[in-house]
Specification:
about 750 residues; alpha/beta; Na+/H+ antiporter like fold; 5 domains; ten-stranded mixed β-sheet; 33 helices; globular
Amino acid sequence: MKNLKNSLVYVGILGTFFALMYWILQIGKMLEAGRNIVEQQLQSSYFSQFIKSITYNLAHPVGLILAQIITILIVSRIFAYIFKKIHQPTVIGEIIAGIALGPSLLGMLFPEFSSALFPENSLDNLSLLSQIGLILFMFMVGMELDIKVIQNKVKDAVVVSNAGILIPFTLGIGLAYFIYESFAPKGVAFLSFGLFLGLAMSITAFPVLARIVQERGMHKTRLGTLVITCAAADDITAWCMLAAIIAIAKAGSFVSSLYIILLAIGYVLIMIKVVRPFLKRVGDLHASRENMSKQVVAIFFLTLLISSYTTEIIGIHALFGAFLAGTIMPENSKFRNIFIQKIEDVALVLLLPLFFVFTGLRTQIGLLDDIHLWKITGLIVLVAIAGKFAGSAIASKIMGQNWRDSLTIGALMNTRGLMELVVLNIGYDLGILSPEIFSMMVIMALVTTFMTGPALDLIDRVFRKKKNILSDQINQLRKYRIILSFGNPEMGRSLLRLANTLIRKQNESTSVTALHLCNNNVLHHYNMDEYENESFEPVIQESELLNQKITTLFKASDDIDTDITEITNKGDFDLLLIGIGQSIFEGSLLGRILGYTTRIVNPDRLIHKVSGKEKLFANSPFDDRTQNILSNSKVPVGIFVDKNTGNWNQVITPFFTENDGFLIEYIQRLIKNSDAQVTVTDPVGLINSHTEIKEAIRAIEQEAPNHIALDQVNEIDETFIQKFQLMVVSAEGWKTLIESRSGWISQAPSILILRE
């Protein structure tokens, strides 16, 4: 009754005010008398007017820039995903996405659509947005540089870093001598052209290099630390050189540029000596997310913008100011992590792809329509590789590194990526680079970045040490090796307890490895050690309580489930344990039973749909990620569902299929190592008809009486299942249980699902 009354009042209010508005509009027409108002005559149909309105809205600057951003984000994400799958940096995919949307592909295949989507008069808006993205990105690059590491390792890295700039810089100037007359724009002095080409050959993409080092697990090694230090020192040197070269290019001569360089040096000193101590004090007071107010965030953003504006006015480009602002931010790793998280997604996901496409629109590969131009392109690539790869490798060898480490340093320092594109676009904007040279240099940046991964794999393959096969076989017979992979540290603790119940009394002849993989996109090299320690702390504490020795393994990854199986297969483990988590079981039937729901779209699932492979997983009780782990792992896999049901002394093991005989081994381990009481159930009447399983159970009864019982129960119910703390079941058996939709499953204890 109350709801009806409220509805009537609501309708009455709406009707009254609509009537009042209509009355005011009608009497308002009387005011038009004597104002020479002529009613607009429709020259065409209403539908034509509608189409005209839509066309106008599509061409409007706001509608056009939104359409461009949507297209750019979709295409860049698709290309980034493809290149991630082939173990290449996502930046390569994003660069190629930009080229594909430019005149080199889209403009060539669909010129009318390309000109409608990216008309000439809209590129200024795209350029401004991309520059804001670059300013935020360079600010992040500055924050990711750990100056202390550079200071501590400078003696080891100075020769390699300097050689990594000096040699390619010299070769670049030499290359400029041969191509200046043919390719330098008119009015550009050889000094500017030569210096800029030399710098473009000297760049190393520090962010991409740091991610590759993380992903390959090199960050804790002496070599990894040395490479990151060299790249960081290289970055600082290169950006300082860029500022000086821009000053020379704008002033026209070295002497004229001295005024700009002196102003820049003075500004750098003010930022380091005055602004940096002030920001440190603010950062120390607001190092946590809770007390970082909007006013504090505004202070740091103002520092970024003022620094960028000042260097732009001085004449050394806004990006140098952004980079400098990042380097003087408070050194507190928690503060930097919080601040980077605030801007990372907007900068990297939304704005930076605009820069890639803007670069792609400038890259006109179609201009290279002659074999001679492609020969020059090949020469540029060759000089770039010889200068950076060979130069860094030779310098490393002279400094006492072995050939494997020297070549690894050379391959990593040869990575150019996004940083090269930034430099090239500055040169293009200043008029130093012609469209032909710009396109050639973009191709060089792609080739040198793309080759880093394969080059590292080749070096590893060539210098791989021969394994002592006999020693490995003896070790495999002597040790039972378990690897447990966890995301949540508390799940890592539970998995370690489970592993311990399987090997507790055989500790000397077993080994346990705890593996934690972190998504590469959320990890920065400067806070990696802190993150690793926090992730493993609960697991290490549990290992001390259990007196269980463990080996920890940490790795940054772009494809976590693939890396889990690769590490497991290469390590010759006997059992892989993974824990249930929202990210692993989202969207699966198991997930729905346990209360998890799908919140994201899985690209792999879309691919399976398109390719017809989804039917292979249609009846699986697991989600795609877990199914991938099960499919690709060459060792037995245990999937653990932790319900916090105690010490797992009371165990139930139902046998559902004739392939469940392998469960006997795990029953034996539980009884032998943790004195578990195991109840074997036969709900489908399988055991009586399989003498091997029946004899194996009898053998355990004789060896460990009162620790195993065979219950011929035909149906498990809620009352029966509540006696137990752990259920051990095969993957096939679990699938049978899920399909039966038994009501007691939600009341089940902790579950260990095993696949042979």
